[in-house]
Amino acid sequence: MAAAENREIRLKSRPVGLPEPTDFELVSAPMPEAGPGQILVRNLWMSVDPYMRARMIDRKSYLPPYQIGQALDGHAVGEVVTSNDPRFKPGDMVQHRLGWRDYSAVAAQDATVIDPAVAPIQAYLGTVGMPGMTAYVGLFRIGEMKGGETIFVSAASGAVGAIVCQIAKLKGCRVIASAGSDDKVGWLEREAGVDVAFNYKTVGDLGAALERAAPDGLDLYFENVGGAHLEAALDNMKTFGRVIMCGLISQYNATEPAAAPRNMFTIVAKQLTLRGFIVSSNLDMRPQFLVDMGKWIADGRIRWQETVEDGLENAPKALLALFQGTNSGKMLVRLDPPA
Ligand code: NDP
After folding, report:
1. CB-based contacts of 154: which residues, under 8 Å, 6+ apart?
2. Which residue, 289, 328, 277, 293, is CA-closest to 159?
3. What is the distance in A from the centroid of ligand 1 to the CA of 148?
4. What is the pLDDT of residues 257-310, one digit of tens each?
5. What's the gap in Å between 162 CA and the centre of ligand 1?
6. With 244 labelled, which of 4, 30, 146, 320 sits at a CA distance of 20 to 30 A?
7. Cα–ligand 1 centroid distance for 111 (angstroms)
């Protein structure tokens, strides 16, 4: 029998700059019930992702903004408690997008059964989930990566970046990675097997570091960060190079519009392609992604790190970690909802 009350985290005010704990509140709400065609899920793990910060701004984008006074939402995995859909039974492990609460009543078509034999269930929020698929879509569809190419990856030790580095390596690319601490750089060299990794906070001139790492230039740049990283990468692209525009995390907390790269003419002069994408517009690739990723994991060719914050009440702190760089690999919140 599920608990009588359901805790959820609501947006209390729109953050200005870095989010503050006071921008959120933990509230007890009535326990949801599975309606027709729905399942009731007891959430066990929840994801915090950089895009959530953008949804706290009241503006039109590819996802609607979060509303003040309403519960946030995002990817979560958990156990089916009751089901009004024949495809699910109590005890099934599922992923869905109605996290930031202990229990979720989810429309059956918005949930997917996950296989704990492939990877631990929380990996369906990272390597086998949205971030892993972002790496896969970005490299193969958007970047059209080919073996033998040289690729630069920013935020390289994160949930997306670490998988980008390893897929590119196993497809025969030369991989250059940047991250914000020596520990992260060490992990990228030792565990992800990149060719060159550097700490962008201490390396000095980013453009010069890239030139040393790739004297013949970059075929591909997997852009997660923006700002100085993008400028340095543009300066080091080969003619006809491709930039996979995945994210610009350095700008998500900006209170003023960010300046454009000062070297925009490089895009013309080098005839570059910069192509943005949203992973959820590429769901047709999911079946093949799951096959390939399942095999790479089984063969021990993909590694990942997790940073875990315990308790729903600590989810805002976990979100903040993404912008302070205190997460290594996938940032997760482990929930312990009452049974
Ligand atoms: P990460 O796990 O990489 O966590 C964020 C990391 O970004 C931090 O650990 C930090 O690492 C780095 N970072 C934060 N602020 C800055 C800054 N000002 N300058 C440089 N680095 C910074 O997050 P994800 O892997 O989930 O996301 C990575 C990127 O991918 C984001 O831009 C995100 O928006 C994007 N994304 C895009 C998707 C799409 O569909 N287009 C889908 C999913 C993610 P460090 O210590 O190295 O600084």
Report:
1. 161, 178, 200, 221, 222, 223, 224, 225, 229, 233
2. 328
3. 26
4. 888 899 999 999 999 999 999 999 999 999 999 999 999 999 999 999 999 999
5. 11
6. 320
7. 26
